[in-house]
Amino acid sequence: MTTESSAMERRMEGQRFIGIDGGGTKTVCILGEPDGTILAMSRGESSSVKSRPWEEVQRVLLTLIQDVLEKTGTPASQLGGVFLGLAGSDRPEDRQRVQDWLRTELPDEVAITVHNDAVTALIAGTWGQRGIALISGTGSIAYGFDPATDTFVRVGGWGYLLGDEGSGFDLGRQALLAVMRAYDGRGEATALTSLVLDRWSLERPEQLINTIYGQDNIRTAIADGSKLVVRAAAEGDSVAVGLVEEAVECLEALVRTAATRMGLPLTGDPLASHGVMTLVLSGGLFNDAWFLKQFLATPTMRTGAFDVQLLERPPVIGAYLLALQEHGLELTEAMKTRMEASITRLL
């Protein structure tokens, strides 16, 4: 540890920091020490500000913060900072809304930073080094960062009404459309019909109307159906295969666009002048080996320009690390080791 970093840690002694990763399906909150030791973790529902009622987002976030404080006996006055990576919170007005509300719940001296959840996934995957994070969970987004030029690039992630192509929600919704079209006679018969009906314990496709619209969180419920599409595609259903191919192409376009905007050439020999770019994959769809294989077979992934890594650390690690860095603390190898060891004990 450098002398400057050691002095910074001494000044922060006694303070604790909170990192929050809030996606379209779940929210994870951790509290830890300045040296990278994570003391407590709490999990809750989605805190996406674009797909959940604001009151629900407030309830989830406040409940998780209170839980980790209580688990560790930490008074709110001991907090040095809170970093929140929340789905749907990339715009200044969204960040300001969350910050203004939390300032009424926490002491004035607590630093509060809000960004989107793609940032937390990227930082968790690269430890703050150059790279691109591609998320395909309930929603989808590509987010790139190059510390050498202080370049941030965001592609996609415009929400389930304006974007999120290649996401779990998008794929699940397309599956439901395929089922209804086949039922009408407007579309090709598909194995998705029986899979979807079995999933909801229904007898006829028209029963899906009440079932889907009656869900407490429609977006999450529909996104869960993406697993059925991948299963049917892997088994050769032509309709499902087409849907997966379209989703993979959309995700490929997110990465290609982000890389191009970061100045990484995807033709010729990208390694000669720019080196390999780390690509961190996160989200439920990439947890399926067959889906991952389809994505890695795309032309962009075959250029040799990317070092592709599945995110092995929880994205919330990135939020916690950013909370520390907001206070000027330099990341060390010892801190990385403590973070990984302590988060493993809590999982």
From TrEMBL:
Domain of life: Bacteria
Key word Membrane present: no
GO molecular function, one term: kinase activity
Keyword Metal-binding: no
InterPro entries per record: ATPase_BadF (IPR002731), ATPase_NBD (IPR043129), Euk-type_GlcNAc_Kinase (IPR052519)
Signal sequence, renumbered to the chain: none
Any Pfam family hit: BcrAD_BadFG
Keywords, in A-Z order: Kinase, Transferase
ATPase BadF/BadG/BcrA/BcrD type domain sequence ranges: 18-323
PANTHER family reported in the protein's UniProt record: N-ACETYL-D-GLUCOSAMINE KINASE
Protein's name according to its UniProt entry: N-acetylglucosamine kinase
Organism: Paenibacillus cremeus
